[in-house]
């Protein structure tokens, strides 16, 4: 989020552009990271849901009781399992990478564009697999973190990314793709 904030500020002083990208994209990335992994996942769900991590439940040698993802519990006091912070961060990173990749699509060969998409997907899957395999999260924690971030991204896309949407038009980026 810090890099996106810096680049958004830079873009405001450079006619709406930073690193070849319009301020709309930097605003979207900043809002996505702040609202999804920052606020929803880490400040709300992980802080108040109380679901113990897999390594802490009795079925895997711990002393906490297993609770399903949909049930708020008291089995964990802080930094709990539901939902995955790393999963949400990796999904926000993947969505950000795909948005940036899409912006430069016309300048990339189809093979490079597809390779970028594939590498982004592999990164996302690797982080999710690693969190489940290490006992840090249940599969549902990772999948739901991805879903929550994707939903927030979908809500943010209309006002921040789509053409002719008013909120950031005054920042100098009237058209997401051409800057015109």
Q: Would you write up a description of this structure?
A:
- This protein has 180 residues and is an all-alpha fold.
- Helices cover 57% and strands 2% of the residues.
- The chain is built from five helices and two strands; from the N terminus they run H-E-E-H-H-H-H.
- The chain has a two-stranded antiparallel ribbon.
- Strand 1 and strand 2 form a beta hairpin.
- Helix 2 runs antiparallel to helix 5 and helix 3 packs parallel to helix 5.
- The C terminus is likely disordered.
Short description:
With 180 residues, the chain is an all-alpha fold.
So what's the overall shape? elongated
User: Average pLDDT value?
Assistant: 87
SSE pattern, N- to C-terminal = HEEHHHH
Q: What topology, given as strand order, has the largest sheet?
A: 1-2
Report the portion of residues in β strands. under 5%
Report Rg: 19 Å
Terminus-to-terminus distance: 26 Å
Structural class category: mainly alpha
The biggest sheet, with number of strands, parallel, antiparallel or mixed sense and barrel status, is: 2 strands, antiparallel
Share of helical residues: 55-70%
Q: Helical segment tally?
A: 5
How many strand units?
2
Which residues form runs of ≥5 with pLDDT under 50? Answer: 165-180
């Amino acid at each position: 989020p810090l890099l996106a904030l810096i680049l958004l500020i830079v873009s405001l002083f450079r006619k709406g552009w930073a690193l070849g990208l319009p301020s709309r994209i930097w605003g979207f990335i900043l809002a996505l990271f702040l609202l999804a992994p920052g606020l929803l996942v880490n400040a709300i769900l992980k802080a108040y849901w109380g679901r113990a991590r897999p390594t802490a439940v009795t079925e895997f040698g711990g002393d906490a009781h297993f609770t399903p993802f949909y049930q708020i519990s008291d089995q964990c006091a802080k930094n709990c399992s539901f939902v995955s912070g790393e999963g949400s961060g990796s999904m926000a990173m993947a969505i950000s990478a795909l948005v940036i990749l899409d912006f430069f699509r016309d300048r990339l060969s189809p093979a490079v564009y597809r390779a970028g998409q594939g590498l982004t997907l592999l990164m996302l899957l690797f982080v999710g697999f690693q969190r489940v395999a290490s006992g840090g999260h249940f599969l549902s924690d990772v999948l739901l973190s991805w879903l929550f971030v994707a939903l927030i991204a979908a809500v943010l896309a209309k006002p921040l990314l789509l053409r002719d949407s008013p909120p950031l038009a005054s920042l100098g980026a009237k058209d997401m793709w051409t800057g015109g």
